[in-house]
Every structure is written in C-alpha cells, then in structure tokens.
Amino acid sequence: MDSYSIDQTKLLPYETIVDELMNDYGQDVLQLVMQYVHNLAVAEDLTQEIFVKCYRALPTFQFNSSIKMWLWRIAINHTKDYLKSWYAKNVQAMETDRFEQVKSGECVEQQVIQQQEEDELARAVFALPVKYREVIYLCYYEEQSMKEMADVLQLNESTMKTRLRKARQLLEKRLERE
Amino acid sequence: MEERLKNFKKTVDQTLFKKVEFAEEHQQQIHKQMHRSHLTQTILSMLTESKSGMELTRMLHVRGVEQIVDNEGMIYSIIHEAEQQGWLSVRWKSGVKYYRLTKIGRKQVQQDHFYVKQSLKEVIWGGRMHVE
Q: Which of A14, A28, A45, A51 is the best residue to mutate to test the B interface, defined by the most B CB atoms within 10 Å of its own CB?
C-alpha cells in the first residue's frame, strides 16, 4: 500500500490517517531510525516525534503523491537533525554497542563460520559514515529502487548510484582488511 | 560483495533489530502526544486576550473539548509548560492569575498555521543539510 486514494483520505480525520500509517509503517520507521542512531531508547523517542510531526504536517500533504515516501523523508530529516544536534554529539548514550550485547549470549552456539561472516558484514555496514550506510540500508534492507532512494534522500539518481558504488567499495576494502 | 549483501537483511534482523518492536504502547503514546499537541494549539490560540485559568477551562468546556472532561489538570500542565517556554506572560489581578500570549507565543501559534499554509515542499525539503 504505497499511497491512499484521494477520495478516502480527504474524508478521514488526520488522526485516523496517522493511525493507519502507524499500523502500516510503524515498525519500518522505528527500524529506519534505529539504523541511524543505534540506540533503542533514542530510536523510540524519535519515532514518536516523527509521527507527531507527521500529524501536524498532514494538512500540507498532497494526496496524489506517495505518503510512504513523504513519511520516509520526514523520518530521515528528523533523525538527521537529531544527529546534528548538540545533544547527540555531546551526550554519550548508555547503550554503546548493540552488536556486542546481542552476540555475547549466543556466540557459543553460533560458531559457524557463515554466521561470523554475516556478523562482520553487518558490523562493517554500521561502521560506515552515515551517507554510505543509509544507501546500503535502503537498497539491501528495504529493497528500494534507485528512484525511491533518490526521492527519500533528496539526491539525484546519478549521485545515488555513485554513492552506492562507493559504499560497496568501502565495504569490500574494510572486510578484506579483517 | 553483492552476494554477501544478500544476507544483509537477515543478519540485521538477528542483530541490530532483534529487540526492536513498534508496539501498541508506542502507538498509544503517539496518540496522547497528538491530542496534547492539538489542545496546546487550541489553548494558545485562545489566549490572544488575557484570561484566567478558570475562564479558559470554562470556554474549553463550552467548546466541547472532550479531553479535558475529568482531566482539567491537563490544561494547567499545558499552560505551565507554555509559560516555561516563554509563550505566555502572567499577570496577577486581585489574587487571580491571568495568562496572555507573548510575542514568541504568537509566533508559535502562527508557526502551526504556517505549517498548514506552507507548501508541502517547504515542510519536507526546507533548507536541510545532509549529515556526513
């Protein structure tokens, strides 16, 4: 469900629309934010703010365009604003490494080489600078098309492609070194 | 590389996203915040002329604002917050506190109307920089 039809939405109160958006995309938005901030408590707070922001901005939404892409743009901009803020730069989050946390309990059983390689991959991706990490995430996790990615990241498609290629090269280099 | 990245989704689900769940309680929290945001805007827009808390409460009841039924304390918590933000000025008159929008408060109200008037493009794309 990518965009709601015009007739329906015009009749729905904004709160109901946000409700539907939360049902359809709540989990995706939370994960998207998590991908940027790597801290669950922060990601939950930001996600709440994003939906409230969306509620307040809904009167400006043009219902012939994709509401999902619109929501993604709000989410990405809001999260990046947070990353740029004084607070994010100066206050150290308690939960520093989620990979470490998750791994410790399990690695006894999961000593399969395949698994380790996959962990390495995820780690390497999440250690990339934001602009490369986000394209890898949108492309390989969300499986968005080049056009969608260019739309939500507000870049043109050729820049998008260059960035994705660069991101893959960086990854390759980092994984070889290990 | 391409081959390895095919496993990326599975891996991330098992590590970073393991306990990440958008639950019912998140939704409820968001509903609360939406209601509060709406009520705040209503209250602020009513305070272009100075009013006491009692007057404000009465007017909200007349308007049929359901949120405040049996929950009038919410009005005061919103007023207090707005006062802290510098959106309201306070004046005492014969033992009663009167509230009124300040310049910043008026801007805050207009900003929300501005949100409504502003084109979609400006809200979403308005002069953002990219984080490196």
A: A51
